[in-house]
Design brief:
Shape: elongated
Structural class: alpha+beta
Order of helices and strands: HEEEEHHEEHH
Largest sheet: 6 strands, antiparallel
Strand order of the largest sheet: 1-2-3-4-6-5
Number of strands: 6
Radius of gyration: 22 Å
Distance between the termini: 38 Å
Oligomer: single chain
């Protein structure tokens, strides 16, 4: 009886070690590089609508959000912060990506609007943001977005946030082939595998 218990324990322990090693291998071999490629391709694709400057801090990246943050200065020396974020929608069930350009909380909408020509590369979006009352919020087939939404400061009608909505299929074959590499993993398993590199590197650093 004692021997059976020992054998069972050793077997379970060996399977657990094998599972951990397999998870680490898949995470570093497939999940991490694929999500990095997708984020890089999304950055390049979204440059059609927003200029993302070179030399700014790297984006903050989590499973559900990629966020860029930088500052812009007007010719008059006024400075405002810019935040660009989106959910990369790595899992198969998520077919829409919202790209959000916004002025951080407590920012000055007048300064934010002054720098928009140096931030927004899409004429339809820029014209709409600068004149919300005449905004063209329709889809833009050339650039791929299905919908454009504006948020303004009520008192001045100045734009404080712009949202573009994209369908994954509009992003092109190359990036969708990268997404397909992730779709074989159920969302719950993918979430675990996505976080394995961060946990592993954290444990190594602590050790």
């Amino acid at each position: 009886m004692k021997k059976i218990v020992i054998v069972s324990f050793v077997t379970i322990f060996a399977l657990l070690v094998l599972l951990i090693i397999t998870s680490i291998f898949i995470s570093f071999k497939t999940i991490k590089p694929t999500t990095e490629v997708i984020n890089r391709d999304l950055k390049n694709y979204f440059s059609k609508i927003v200029y993302i400057p070179e030399g700014i801090p790297p984006p903050q990246q989590t499973l559900d959000k990629t966020e860029y943050f930088w500052e812009m200065e007007t010719p008059q020396g006024e400075v405002t912060s810019i935040r660009l974020k989106y959910d990369p929608s790595f899992t198969k069930g998520k077919n829409t990506i919202q790209v959000i350009l916004e002025m951080p909380e407590n920012g000055d909408p007048s300064i934010f609007n002054k720098v928009l020509p140096a931030v927004i590369s899409d004429k339809q979006s820029l014209d709409s943001a600068q004149d919300p009352q005449k905004a063209n919020l329709n889809a833009n087939q050339e650039l791929g977005y299905e919908k454009l939404s504006l948020f303004t400061k009520k008192e001045t009608n100045q734009t404080t946030k712009i949202i573009w909505e994209f369908k994954k299929e509009s992003l092109g074959d190359k990036i969708n082939q990268e997404y397909a590499k992730l779709y074989k993993y159920p969302p719950a398993l993918f979430k675990i595998l996505y976080n394995v590199p961060q946990i592993t590197l954290g444990l190594l650093a602590a050790g």
